[in-house]
C-alpha cells in the first residue's frame, strides 16, 4: 500500500474545470441542434396540415358549392378529423380564404423554418418581421387531381 499520499498523481482543479467546460459546451451545442431540428419538424407538420386543409376545402367546395369559412365547417361536414386543431404546432391559427376558383390556406410560422426550395413551388413564403406567412393555394381544376404516372414499355 502506498503510504505517501502526496506522491500519487491526481487531477488538478484547473483540469477538472476545463473538462466540465468542454462537456457543457458540447451539451449546449447538442441541445441547440435538437431545438432547431424540432422546429423544422413542426414546420413540416404545419405545411402538411395546410395541404390537407386546402385539399379538404376544394372537396368541400365541389360538393357544397361555397368555400368553408372556418375549419369547423370542414369538421362538421366530415372533411377533417373531429379532433383536429384550429392552431398550427406553434399556436398560430390557420386561415382559409376562398376566391372565385381558388382557395388559399395560410398560417404564421417562425422565420426561416420553411422555404419554397424545401417544400416546392406550391408553398409561398412571405417574410413578416420575425415570422413567415406560409400560404398554399389550390384551384378547383388542379386541386383535386394530383396524378403521377410512370410510362413503362414492355419488350418481348
Characteristic key phrases:
about 160 residues; alpha+beta; 4 helices; 4 strands; about 40% helix; disordered C terminus
Summarize the structure.
This protein is of the alpha+beta class. The chain is built from 4 helices and 4 strands; from the N terminus they run ααββαββα.
| Number of helical stretches of at least 4 residues | 4
Helix/sheet category: alpha+beta
Q: Which parts are unreliable, with pLDDT below 50 for 5 consecutive residues or more?
A: 142-156
Averaged pLDDT, please? 80
User: H/E order of the elements?
Assistant: HHEEHEEH
Identify the strand order in the major beta sheet: 1-2-4-3
Content of β-strand: 15-25%
Q: What is the global morphology?
A: elongated
**DSSP helix fraction:** 40-55%
| Number of strand segments | 4
What integer value in Å does the Rg equal? 27 Å
What does the main sheet amount to? 4 strands, antiparallel
Distance between the termini: 86 Å
Please describe what this structure looks like.
This protein is α+β, with helices and mostly antiparallel strands and 156 residues long. It is built from four helices and four strands. It has helices spanning 13-64, 71-76, 116-119, 140-143; strands at residues 95-98, 102-110, 123-128, 131-139. A four-stranded antiparallel β-sheet has the order 1-2-4-3. The longest helix is centred in the N-terminal third of the chain and has 52 residues, at 13-64. The model is unreliable at 142-156 (pLDDT under 50).
Amino acid at each position: 500500500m502506498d503510504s505517501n499520499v502526496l506522491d500519487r498523481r491526481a487531477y488538478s482543479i484547473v483540469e477538472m474545470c476545463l473538462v466540465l467546460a468542454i462537456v457543457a459546451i458540447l451539451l449546449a451545442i447538442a441541445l441547440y441542434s435538437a431545438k432547431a431540428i424540432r422546429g423544422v419538424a413542426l414546420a413540416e407538420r404545419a405545411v402538411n396540415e395546410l395541404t390537407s386543409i386546402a385539399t379538404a376545402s376544394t372537396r368541400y367546395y365541389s360538393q357544397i358549392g361555397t368555400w368553408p369559412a372556418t375549419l369547423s365547417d370542414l369538421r362538421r361536414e366530415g372533411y377533417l378529423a373531429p379532433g383536429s386543431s384550429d392552431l398550427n404546432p406553434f399556436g398560430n391559427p390557420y386561415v382559409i380564404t376562398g376566391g372565385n376558383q381558388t382557395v388559399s390556406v395560410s398560417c404564421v410560422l417562425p422565420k426561416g423554418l420553411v422555404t419554397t426550395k424545401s417544400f416546392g413551388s406550391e408553398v409561398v413564403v412571405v417574410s413578416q418581421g420575425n415570422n413567415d406567412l406560409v400560404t398554399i393555394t389550390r384551384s378547383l381544376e388542379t386541386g383535386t387531381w394530383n396524378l403521377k404516372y410512370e410510362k413503362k414499355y414492355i419488350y418481348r
